[in-house]
Design a protein that fits this description.
Layout: H1 3-40, H2 72-98, E1 155-156, E2 168-169, H3 185-196, H4 202-211, H5 218-231, H6 233-244, E3 248-261, E4 264-275, E5 281-284, H7 292-298, E6 304-307, E7 323-326, H8 329-340, H9 347-366, H10 370-396, H11 404-420, H12 433-449, H13 455-474, H14 478-488
Parallel strand pairs: 3-6, 6-7
Antiparallel strand pairs: 1-2, 3-4, 4-5
Length: 503
Amino acid sequence: MTDIQQILRENDLLKAQLLLKEEQLLRKNERILYLERQLFGRRSEKKLPDYGEAQLSLFNPEQGKPALEQEVSVLTTLVEDIKQKAEQRRIMQKQHSASGKRSYKIPLHIERRETILEPENVNPDTLVKIGEDVSERLMLEPSRFWVERIVRPVYKAKQREQTLTTTIFQAPSKPVILPGCIAGESLLSQIIVDKFLYHLPEYRQAKRFKELEVEIPTSSINRWVHVLADKLYGLYAAQMERVLSGNYIQVDETTHPITDRPGSARKGYIWAVRSVLFPGVFFYYDKGSRSQEVVLKMLKGYQGALQTDGYAAYSIYEEKEGVLPLGCMAHVRRKFEQALTTMPEAKPALDYIALLYMLEGNLKAEGADHEQIRREREEKAYPILQQMEIWMQQAYNNCTPKSPLGKAISYAFGMWPRISRYCKEGYFQIDNNGVENAIRPLVVGRKNYLFSGNDSGAEDNCIFYTLLGSCLQAGVDPHKWLTSTLEKIPTLQTPINWEELLP
């Protein structure tokens, strides 16, 4: 090899290294911009972007060249109809919110304690009442304990009624859910509700009890919670069966740290399964795994529509007979929102998605039934989805596969058959947000009590999140329902019909 060849080779090598460094720097800059947006920018999941008239120029010839000129004549009418109805809806909402100040209505059943303020330094005998002014303020008394004293008198027959065998008369003990436990059903229910609904860890509850002059060790509260979980497992299993008996569910999962290893925490996963057509939800934990085997075990025997995000574990249901996989448009929107932080070319995708959500908002505001929704989606949503697919094909050819836009399009393409299926039925949802809302209490609770000490603790958490979440889904008061259920269970004959006790 000559010196010139050597120099040329080294030059080519340096050029390749330079290109690699430039690509790495570009990726780092994109990551920095994304993190900055996450920290300081608007979160797309908190509020859907308000794509107004000025932004929705995708099919508006007056605001520049359309993205897909050959289809404008076909889509302009339906797009304008969606935009017009959405604008009318926004105006009505603004008018409604601006009409008068907010009024607070205090329910009539709330106890009224009257305070009468008489004028001072006046002889009431010289006055005649001609009216009165009344105002109300809402007051609150702190929680208070009370003790139920259970007295069981012991009797024997009177002297003249006695036989050779003296008979003792006494009422049987009151059946309780936790024999020998100082806590009654109402207190146990409050502990469960405070931890799993209001995210108050057990040590904070013990501190609050102490402020009320009752000392209950945190260890005792923890033990009661775990024993109650065992007592209520039958209800949990019945709720799982009920949810899976429906024909339309949504599934999602979230992380849940487990601290059963010295000095570290391992990442576990809790799954949430929500029934869409009737109130119901359950949470599932299997050794913290997120594998496809857990999905198959959790949903064993299920038949119907299954709505999920793009996690690969659900892909097996594409070929499973009796199951119709549905996708989540919100997850697609998130990918393009992330891409938009560094690539303005992603905006047309968000314009398409905004139109689809506008249509859903219009239908909801009109109170449309399932058949009307299906027709509107078929006539308006499906053509927009088709145009978005064409746009993605063109845009993908103009970007690198590993760019934020390329990754967003790849994700959308992989989900597209599932995404577009929501147009098939009026009762299908455009996204998976229902189950994400159901799983939110678990996420908030995790920020307060941080972790579970072992797999058993995580399983117990699933039981209580399932029961309380089902109460919320059904519009049932969780504390009243749980107190009543804890009182009923010890009185029932085995085998217990758990389904009858569900909220």
